[in-house]
Amino acid sequence: MAAVIPAPESGRRRRLRAWIGEHPVGYLFVLPYAVFLAAIYAYPFAFSVYMSFYDWFFAAPGAEVERPFVGLANYVAALADPLVQVAIRNVAIFLAINVPITVALSLALAAALNGAVPLRAFFRGAYFVPYVTASVAVVGVWYWLFSGYGLVARLLGHLAPNPPFLVNPRWAIVMIALYVTWKQLGFYVLLYLAALQNIPRELYEAARVDGAGRLRSFLAVTVPGVRPATVLVVILAVIIGANFFTEPYLLTGGGGPDNQSISPVLLIYRYGIEQNHPGYAAAIGVLLVIGVLTVSAIYRFVLERE
To answer: Torsions phi, psi of 219, nearest 5?
Structure first.
């Protein structure tokens, strides 16, 4: 009996198969998360971009209101707003403090906890406790430490700044950056711990045979081995750090003193919710997203290129 030769696929069918893959049923498993992303993130962001081009404001349900199209006026006003400029400066200061300390300290702690140290399980849990603790509860501890009559001020004595840390125009944003670094550190330590598990032990043995000490092995084996985790940690630190809101709201009384610790997200809340200018607030939010994506892309390009 002659063999039956299947008919060749058409170009359209080949392109369709290449687009959907060999197992299209997998899209059914991805669909719930895609719907979640579209409903929770994509649609609100798209609507925010839409609002940013209008003189938008909240009105009573059913009320007939006119929201005129203003084009780029909200963006021009936001870039010229002194408070927005202060908020952008604060984000730059925050990231300059938070990102390097987060990367260096979390990697160092993860490398230490990855070895055979006493009470390793206890320290792993201890570093993670601040991350899972509510900010409202932890803020009380920082008030007790850094207020005018707090423990740190008493220990420093005459060396303590006047006004105290949390109400000092120079120190307020620095204390917020240190607070966020301390609170988020446990999460990044876990990321690095997971990355360290994937580094082959043979590389450390080879480095030891070549005469490398602990520091040299750390720089030549550990740091390159966790580079993908470092890229992830940096990007997450930039995204989370640029969107800080709870910290100035609770620690410095809503961006004080005199708005010197104000953040873009806090400004969005102030303009959009308190003052009923959501169109203007949306423009600030879009500018923040563009800035965060740009900084994250630069960090990723530099780290991956190295």
So the answer is: -75, -35
Domain boundaries, the chain: 73-135+162-305
Q: Give Cβ neighbours of residue 157 (< 8 Å, ≥ 6 apart).
A: none
Here the tokens at position 103 are 């990367």
Q: Which is the CATH superfamily of the domain at 73-135+162-305?
A: MetI-like (1.10.3720.10)
Query: Mean pLDDT, the chain, as a whole number?
Result: 85
**How many residues can be counted in the chain?**
306
pLDDT digits (tens, 9 = 90+) for 69-124: 998 999 999 999 999 999 999 999 999 999 999 999 999 999 888 876 677 777 77
- For tokens 């966790």, the residue is 226
Model confidence band, residue 58 (pLDDT cutoffs 50, 70, 90): confident
Compute the distance between CA of residue 271 and CA of residue 213 in angstroms, rounded to an integer: 56
User: Do residues 255 and 266 touch, judged by C-beta distance below 8 A?
Assistant: yes
Structure tokens that stand for 121 in this block: 């399980």
Q: Which phi and psi angles does 118 have, rounded to 5°?
A: -65, 145
**Dist. CA 93–CA 221, nearest whole Å:** 31
